[in-house]
Protein: Fructose-bisphosphate aldolase
Amino acid sequence: MYANLKETLAYAKERGIAVGAFNAHCLEMVPAMLHAAKETNLPIIIQTTAGTADYVGYDVFVAVVKTLAEQLPVPVTLHLDHATDFAKIKQAVDAGYSSVMFDGSTLPIAENIEKTLEVSAYAHPRNVSVEAELGIIGGAEDGVMIDSTQVSFTQPEEVSQFLQHVTVDALALSIGTTHGQYKSKANLQFDLLETIANNHARPLVLHGGTGVKDEDIQKCVTRGIVKINVGTELLIAWTRTAKHQFAKADLTDSLRNHLIPCNEQIKQVIKAKMAVFALEKASV
Ligand code: 13P
Structure:
């Protein structure tokens, strides 16, 4: 079923699990992602950046995700990831995305509040959920690099101040993960997460899921994280397989012969992640 983020996260919270939010970089990846949800019977969030939505078409993503979601008994959300431009957010809402993120994390908090309020005022009456972000997460996201000197962890006082003014459906935190594939990427601040989760009953989001150890992910889930973003790991799995496939391709081969293995790879990665996020094979 097609659902907004609020509904999908409520479904997850009721079951004591977290939902995976997986970045699609092209339309080709989407059916494989939904097959992972079908085969695990777990909810899923498909997310795109504005750049990918511009490339494929906002309405095209909506049509494909909605059609496939209606065939599943679990909630499926289509989410706009890390948007900073109100025009793009409006485009996603108008096209039928069921959730949007306004990323005002690098703005002064007053401006982050003001702009998130604007986004909520547009999205909420249209039944579209809103994710906000506090604290600055390092690494590269859709070509934009935040280096380690700019990183700042989410401050509990900032969360209180923010939530006094804004109602959001999910809040992304900076607690030690990094966007992108890094060997020593996660030095997770579990105490900070616990403090924020204990003070505020808001659904919390972990960005930069690639490369975080399964046991650390599960510690985050048991401490209040309900949405976990994974992008780079899928991109690597898809591209690595594509390189292998196309290196041996005959120019007249049907493309599907080479794309099916790429999609199969990401389906397996997603299924494995979903099992960890659902606290199956629990390691905590
Ligand atoms: P990774 O690419 O590190 O998995 O992060 C994805 C993400 O957080 C998208 O918002």
